[in-house]
Amino acid sequence: MERVRLGKTDMEVSRLGFGGAETGFGQHAAEQVAAILNVALDAGLNVVDTAECYGTGEETIGKAVSSRRSDYYLFTKCGHSVIPDLPDWDPRMLEQSIDRSLKLLRTDHVDLLQVHSCDEAILRAGEVIEVVQRAKAAGKTRYIGYSGDGAAAHYALQCGAFDTLQTSLSIADQEGIDLNLPLARAQGVGVIVKRSIANAAWRYGATCDNDYHRPYWERLRVLDYPFLKGDPAEAAATALRFTLSLPGVQNILIGTTNPGRWKENMATIARGPLPQAEVDAIRARWKAVAKPDWVGQI
Hints:
By secondary structure, the protein is α/β, with parallel strands linked by helices.
């Protein structure tokens, strides 16, 4: 699988990475996660991304593939409290949460520790950034990043503290293309994309009862892209290749519970970016109908 340098870091990352939210929130057993990840690692994927708040995500990844720690870059996130009696973003909570993550992941360090979608005011206060900088100085992480969208992500890029940005970009989430990608490129910040195929929300058809997917489902009904009305597999490929085509995007996270899905996704990545005319058509449709509140989805 093709690999590219992630911003200014020394990490040569596969274009496709494993996003751990789906398996973590789904409470999947370590054996199932191992089956999913071992197939992916064997095929050349080398990015595994999770978070302290993804249910059992860190614990199952630690059980499943810690024995292959040298085969992949390990990313996690902090900020949402998993420590009793301490609130989100409290510096004491963050420090304890980071240590908890390392224990669950069965490692002495992660390659990337990301501040997980805190708002701009919290970032500007500085305490959260200081905690993750201390974690880096202590060797608990090699790099630090910000995971989020909108104005908070813009400030995270402006402040110069972060090595990477993880953000939502897709056919149904395009705010960040103009707001944050140009600044990330100018700053040399590596860009990781979450929700890269808009949760495939079009598959719900006439109704969507999933609160996590509904915002994209509602947007896609308005966007009414012609390619979503054709072959489902080709629709998903077009959505993924669109995101791959965005300037400055280096790594795209996909979550799956099906080991066989990696072969399909890797074949799509191998086809390369979407032709520019198709990218332009998707962008033009977005600009024509997108509403002011169609902001990046956490």
